[in-house]
Design goal:
InterPro entries: Methyltranfer_dom, SAM-dependent_MTases_sf. Keywords: Methyltransferase, Transferase. With about 270 residues, this protein is α/β, with parallel strands linked by helices. It is about 45% helix and about 20% strand. It contains nine helices and nine strands. Strands 3-2-1-4-5-9-6 form a seven-stranded mixed β-sheet, sandwiched between helices. A two-stranded antiparallel ribbon has the order 7-8. The radius of gyration is 18 Å and the shape is globular. The protein starts with 7 loop residues before the first helix and ends with a strand.
Length: about 270
């Protein structure tokens, strides 16, 4: 899923980089949830196709993955970056899934429900595309968690700006912790849960990950009166964040990612 306020080039770069940090977590989640060779999988809000490629690897050549994304440019990027024969990308709306067939063995999604106007209705639509006994698995963050081991001035400021922007834009900041309740509100069995985050200190600490995310939000920050491009200075943000991390002998912490999965009732 792409941010609604990012320019296309910046968003492509962010999605590609994001995969390096989140794909290992998503792979572990999908394996634990039960994704297996031969399954046919629907990926919601595919963006650059990271999750679809992870799923395709897990289901193998006898399985298949259909990724849907509302932005045609993102679909084109995903197709360009994917050479697996068992992956197909389509333009589609993850909220309504209009035109998407049923009978999938699993529906998966990462960082998608947080952007949707009605996550409960979206889960109902997703469940309607899964065969009886099939799997529904979502992976969502808690963005209110601390982003660094030590809350230095710059880390604190960009976190405040970013969360204020999400709040004003109506984007759910704590979709991960809300997954259990959301599944139940959609009439689904109570899901199993797995929470995991990445963290790293030293010169390889991924401050660039948070810098990329914040940089893509700058146009909306300016539109909503939260902060200006000059104040954020996205061109130097990653270096400044890393410098503060190193000077405080701290670490960079990724958002805790909650995975929720459940099997639909068998026929």
């Amino acid at each position: 899923m792409n941010y609604p306020f990012a320019n296309r080039t910046a968003e492509d770069e962010r999605l590609v980089a994001q995969g390096r940090l989140f794909d290992p977590l998503t792979r572990r989640l999908l394996r634990q949830a039960g994704l297996a060779p031969g399954m046919r999988v629907l990926d919601l809000g595919s963006g650059a196709g990271n999750v679809a490629r992870v799923a395709a690897d897990l289901v193998g050549p006898d399985g298949a993955v259909v990724g849907i994304e509302r932005d045609p440019a993102a679909v084109e990027l995903a197709q360009r970056r994917t050479d697996a024969a068992n992956v197909e990308f389509r333009v589609g709306d993850a909220q309504t899934l209009d035109g998407i067939e049923d009978g999938f063995d699993a529906v998966v999604g990462r960082l998608i429900l947080m952007y949707l106007p009605d996550p409960v209705a979206a889960l109902r639509q997703a469940a309607a595309r899964v065969r009886p006994g099939g799997l529904l698995c979502m992976h969502e963050p808690d963005l209110q968690y601390l982003w660094a081991g030590t809350q230095t001035p710059l880390w604190g400021q960009i976190r405040t700006w970013f969360l204020e922007t999400l709040e004003k834009a109506g984007i759910e900041q704590r979709m991960g912790p809300a997954l259990f309740t959301t599944f139940r509100a959609a009439g689904l069995p109570g899901p199993h849960l797995l929470m995991e985050a990445f963290a790293k200190g030293g010169p390889d600490a991924p401050a660039w990950g948070w810098a990329n995310v914040v940089a893509t939000a700058v146009p909306l920050m300016e539109k909503l009166g939260v902060a200006t491009r000059t104040e954020v200075d996205p061109a130097t943000l990653a270096d400044r964040l890393l410098a503060e991390t190193l000077s405080s002998e701290s670490c960079v912490i990724g958002p805790p990612m909650t995975g929720a999965w459940t099997a639909l009732p068998a026929a």
